[in-house]
Automatic annotation (TrEMBL), chains A, B:
GO biological processes: aromatic amino acid family biosynthetic process; chorismate biosynthetic process; shikimate metabolic process
Gene3D superfamilies the UniProt entry points to: Leucine Dehydrogenase, chain A, domain 1, NAD(P)-binding Rossmann-like Domain
GO cellular component: cytosol
Domain of life: Bacteria
Pfam families: Shikimate_dh_N
Keywords annotated in UniProt: Amino-acid biosynthesis, Aromatic amino acid biosynthesis, Oxidoreductase
Residue stretches making up the Shikimate dehydrogenase substrate binding N-terminal domain: 24-106
GO MF term set: NADP binding; shikimate 3-dehydrogenase (NADP+) activity
Protein's name in the database: Shikimate dehydrogenase substrate binding N-terminal domain-containing protein
SUPFAM superfamilies xref list: Aminoacid dehydrogenase-like, N-terminal domain, NAD(P)-binding Rossmann-fold domains
Pathway: Metabolic intermediate biosynthesis; chorismate biosynthesis; chorismate from D-erythrose 4-phosphate and phosphoenolpyruvate: step 4/7
Length: 296, 296
C-alpha cells in the first residue's frame, strides 16, 4: 500500500479465511480436551486448521450433522457423549471397530462429501493400560458402562484375549446386547454380565460418566481396592477422579483418562486427513489396527 | 496428579471446551479478514472466543443458518458475499439499516435463541472516507454495485446529505429498486441511475466484487482519474486493487477496503455481545447510529 492511513495492526495469527475447520460435538462440551490437543496435532503437521467445541443437544444432532456437510471447509468431527451411537448411524460407511461396537468417535468428510466414521476409544484405552506395562492376555477384566465409549473399549479388549470380560451397566439389557454382538465376532471369548467381587479381578475400567459431573461419586462402591488391581478411568476431568484417588491410596496402578486420550490423538488425525483425500468407497480402515499391531 | 506417567504437553492455548464460537459465512471465504480481526477484538475484551470461516454455498444457506442455532455455544455470525440479503430475511428481527437496505452483515444469537441482524457495511464505508478528512455533505457520489454491501452503503450515504447519489449496477432493475426504497426514507435526497462522466463527480465508491477475483479488472473503464476525485474500494484483497492503484497514480485520495473493514470491527462486536444478553424484543439498535453521531 502506498497511501499512509491509520490501520489497526490488531489481529491474531492462528486463524484466517483459509483455515480448515474441525469440531468436537458433545453435550456438554466444557470438559473436552480435543480442541487444544487435536488443534496442536493438526498444526504440528503443517495444516492451517482449528478444532472448536460445538455444544449440540441430542434432539438437534441429526440436522446439525447434515448441515455441517454444507460447510465446505469443515473437514471432520470428533464425537463425544451422548452422540457416538447416533453418529455411527449417520455415516455413509464405518470401519470395523465402529461396526462391531455400534458407535463412532471420529467422523471424516470424504472427497465426495460423505461422512465416514470409526471408533478410536478402544484403541486409546488398551494402549494406555499396556503403556503401563500391563498385558491384558489372560486377565480378568471388569468394564463399567457400555455407552459409546464402553462398547468400543469392549471390542478392543476382546481383541487382546483376556480370560474374562465382565460387563456392568445400569441398563442390563444394553450390556447383554453388547455381549451378544461381541460374541458373534469373538466366539472363543468369555463374557459375563454383572458386578463380581473385586478380589477375583485384575483390571477395572470405568467407561461410565459417573465421577464427571459429581467428583465425589464413584461407579462402584469401595473405600479401598486390592492392591494388585489395575484401575483405569476414562474420565479426563476431574483428574484424578475419586475412583483413581481411591486406587492410588490403595497402592493400585491408576491409569488416567488423559493417557487414553493422548493415545487417540495421532490415530484420529491420521484417519481424518487420509479420508479427506479419497472417495467414501476408497477409505482404508486398516491403518488403525496396523498401528495397534506395531505396539504389540 | 500423584502418579507419574508420560503425557503429551502438546496443546494450544487459544481454544478449549469452553470457547465461544463465532463464524463468518460466505462463498468463497479465503479472502475474509474477520477471523483475525474479530477474534482479536473479542479476546481483547476478555472473552474465550474464536471466529472461524464457514464456506457455505447459497443453496445450503437457509438450512445451515437454522442448524447453527442448535450449536449452543455459537453466539453470532458475520455474513458476507453472497448471503447478506438472505441473511436479513432469516432474522427474527433486524435493525433500521438492515430494514432499509434489505440486507444484514452481522447476526447475533439472542438470549432466547433467535437470530437478530443489522447491517454495518455503510457505517464502515462512510467512517473510512470521513476519517480521510472528506465531508460528504453536498458532494456528488457514484456508487458502483448495489449487492448487499452496496445497498447498505447507499443507506448510510443518504444519511449524510450528499448533493447527488448516482448508482450504477449491471442489473439496472436492482439499482432502481434500491433507489425506490431509499426515496421512501430520504424523500429530499436526489438519486439517479447510470454512469455519469467522472469530471462531474467528487467521490467514486466501488461496492462491486469486480477486482476481487481478477486483480486486473476494474469496475469502470479509466486509465486515469481527475485528481480531485476521492476513490474508495470496498475490496480488501488484493490491496491496492487496480482501481485504487490507478487512483493513486492520478493523485487522488484512495480509500482502502481495509479502512472500511477496521471501522466495522468494534461496532460489530458491540452488537454481538449486547444482543446475546437479552431477548429478541429487547435488542437495542440505537448503539450504532449513536456511534456515528459521536464521530460527526
Amino acid at each position: 500500500m502506498t497511501s499512509p492511513f491509520p490501520l489497526s495492526a490488531a489481529t491474531v495469527d492462528y486463524v484466517d479465511g483459509s483455515t480448515r475447520v474441525y469440531a468436537i460435538i458433545g453435550h456438554p462440551v466444557q470438559q473436552v480436551r480435543s480442541p487444544q490437543a487435536i488443534t496442536f496435532e493438526l498444526r504440528r503437521r503443517g495444516l492451517n486448521a482449528i478444532l472448536l467445541p460445538f455444544d449440540v443437544a441430542p434432539a438437534s444432532f441429526d440436522n446439525v450433522m447434515t448441515s455441517l456437510l454444507a460447510i465446505g471447509n469443515l473437514d471432520g468431527l470428533i464425537i463425544t457423549v451422548p452422540h457416538k451411537i447416533r453418529a455411527r448411524d449417520l455415516c455413509s460407511r464405518v470401519g470395523p471397530l465402529a461396526e462391531i461396537s455400534g458407535s463412532a468417535s471420529v467422523i471424516a468428510r470424504t472427497a465426495d462429501d460423505k461422512w465416514v466414521g470409526e471408533l478410536f476409544d478402544g484403541m486409546g484405552c488398551v494402549a494406555a493400560i499396556r503403556n503401563r506395562g500391563v498385558d491384558l492376555e489372560g486377565r480378568r477384566i471388569l468394564l463399567l458402562g457400555v455407552g459409546g465409549a464402553g462398547a468400543g473399549i469392549a471390542v478392543e479388549l476382546a481383541r487382546h484375549r483376556p480370560a474374562e470380560i465382565h460387563i456392568h451397566d445400569p441398563d442390563r439389557a444394553k450390556a447383554m446386547h453388547v455381549i451378544e454382538r461381541l460374541s458373534a465376532h469373538f466366539p472363543a471369548q468369555s463374557f459375563s454380565v454383572g458386578l463380581p467381587a473385586l478380589d477375583g479381578l485384575d483390571v477395572v475400567i470405568n467407561a461410565s460418566p459417573v465421577g464427571m459431573l459429581d467428583p465425589e461419586r464413584m461407579p462402584i462402591e469401595a473405600s479401598r481396592f486390592p492392591s494388585h488391581l489395575v484401575v483405569m478411568d476414562v474420565i479426563t476431568d476431574p483428574a484424578p477422579t475419586r475412583l483413581l484417588r481411591t486406587a492410588e491410596e490403595s497402592g493400585c496402578i491408576a491409569v488416567y483418562g488423559r493417557e487414553m486420550f493422548d493415545s487417540q490423538i495421532a490415530g484420529a488425525c491420521d484417519f481424518l486427513l487420509a479420508a479427506r483425500q479419497v472417495g467414501v468407497n476408497d477409505v482404508r480402515f486398516d491403518r488403525q489396527p496396523a498401528r495397534l499391531n506395531q505396539s504389540e
